[in-house]
Amino acid sequence: MDLGLTGKRALVLASSRGLGLGIAEALAAEGANVMITGRDAARLGAAVDAINARGAGTARFVVSDLSDKATPALLEEAVGKEFGGLDILVNNTGGPPPGSMSDADLSVVHRQFEIMVLSVMDITARFLPGMRAQGWGRVLSVASSGVIQPITNLGLSNALRATLVGWSKSMANETAGDGVTFNMLLPGRIDTARLKELDAANAKRSGKSIEDVAQAAQSQIPVGRYGAVEEFGSTAAFLVSERASYINGSMIRCDGGAIKSV
Known about the structure:
7-stranded parallel beta sheet, alpha/beta, 7 strands, Rossmann fold, SDR
């Protein structure tokens, strides 16, 4: 299937590794020109070189930190200079520290809200007018299965990511008539460095081995395993494609059936 992504201009946040990089790689493989972002210039450079070596679409990078309030303007300038505009925005952020919501430090809550919510809203607002004016755009926000089924010991993530659910749905209703769709992609347990960090934290908290924690987690997933980054990236690529033009205001699960609700 031709996804109609050849030549599309995409910005993928927090994409030097993990899910963000997986999405960027999938978009470039479909012919899109992708800008990736992150704090580690060496890691970003290596990722760009690897993507460009494969052909199809191209990749560029900009060093940026979502905790820096100057980042939205920086990304707007970089995209304007390199691409002249944007067709696809993938909102992706790192996760907050694990822990229970009842024990959360309010200063940490406030800071993580700025990073995980306000930065996403600001960056989106900067590129949305151009998408609406050209009559085509895709905004995909990566969240977590925790927005449907809260995850134990990830209270802050559950709370903050859920904020984006209402925002994304509201934006979907307001912009669809201009050819711009807003959707959310909810990963379950995808095999990334972040997942390994969470398994390690759960092992430390429970006194179990990391292997036992991982095995127990996988036993609760109907497909019986963690997801692959490539599977997640392919799902994202479809959702921001021309072929997904009638999918709007939705939350798509990529979780192997782990979420218990219908």
